[in-house]
Amino acid sequence: MSSFTLEGRVRLSTALVQGNGKREPTVPPEREAEARRLGMCGAEIDAARRGQSFDARTSRALALALAAAARDGGCLTEERERPIRSGISAEVCGEIESLAEDLAGSTATRDSESAVAPAC
């Protein structure tokens, strides 16, 4: 069984990459404060805004979140397989997709093209 969960840092990273789709030049102060409270450094925050992480499984989770938020069927199918191969359970993958879709829905007023696109 995988020890990877949708914990605070992964949730926040998912929110940061979704927020960057609105092309915000800086991280909102409340998000940065939350990131610092969770122990994230500036480089980790910047990486999350680009849909990346220094942790391989978190990077896979963010790629899945981007594909789910973009509602790109072909890319989503591919991105669903990668986290599972890296040890993230299918249940957690479902949680990541749901969170990303919820966050994308709450930012539906953003431009039609996101500043961060899925990798595939």
From TrEMBL:
Its domain of life reads Bacteria
- What organism is listed for this UniProt entry? Methylobacterium crusticola
Name of the protein in its database record = Uncharacterized protein
